[in-house]
């Protein structure tokens, strides 16, 4: 391939990208929607910039989040947007499962960011039942390092127990019944 052919290919790709951007400008897509449900947290992470504490306030009432979802659905539909429930620790939000069920019932995909320490077998089962599709749980190294960075003695073991509970309660069963973890 000579230099002119390469330049021609690059020019074509740049034109296609420009057309795609113009299309998005006229009809934007919302792919990710984050709801910070609460600033309450049971960790005291060294690296956290949110100033979360166990006494911090919750975010909006469920009805306000649902109003936002109704607007999002009216404008963008519910098939491409994934809702991420976050916090602080989102499981400390008093109406967490009510909101999760409403999100699922409205046809949105949803996931969450959690420290994993509050995920008992029962919580894992309820997360699965309310349609949670993804979860992000950080593990900051081996137990001593993790616990120090998270400001939570025993946090590593509680986090890993949460991960095990998710797996045991069907954490990946919707993808494939033969998936091995």
Describe the structure.
The protein is of the alpha/beta class. It has one domain: TIM Barrel, CATH 3.20.20. It has six helices and four strands. Strands 1-2-3-4 form a four-stranded parallel sheet, covered by helices on one side. α4 links the parallel β3 and β4. The longest helix has 24 residues. The termini are far apart.
Give the helix/strand layout:
Elements: H1 3-26, E1 32-38, H2 62-76, E2 82-87, H3 96-105, E3 109-114, H4 121-129, E4 132-137, H5 143-150, H6 155-168
Parallel strand pairs: 1-2, 2-3, 3-4
Helix pairs in contact: 2-3, 4-6
Distance between the termini: 45 Å
The outline comes out as globular
Number of E-type strands: 4
Q: Please give the radius of gyration in angstroms.
A: 21 Å
Residues in helices, as a percent range = 40-55%
- Strand content is 5-15%
User: The CATH topology is what?
Assistant: TIM Barrel
With strands numbered from the N-terminus, the spatial order across the biggest sheet is: 1-2-3-4
Mind summarizing the main beta sheet?
Answer: 4 strands, parallel
Count of the separate structural domains = 1
With helices defined by DSSP (H or I, 4 residues minimum), what is the helix count? 6
- Provide the structure class: alpha/beta
Arithmetic mean pLDDT = 90
Low-pLDDT ranges: 173-181
Assigned CATH class: Alpha Beta
In CATH, what is the homologous superfamily? Aldolase class I
* N-to-C SSE string, H for helix and E for strand: HEHEHEHEHH
For the record, the CATH architecture stands as Alpha-Beta Barrel
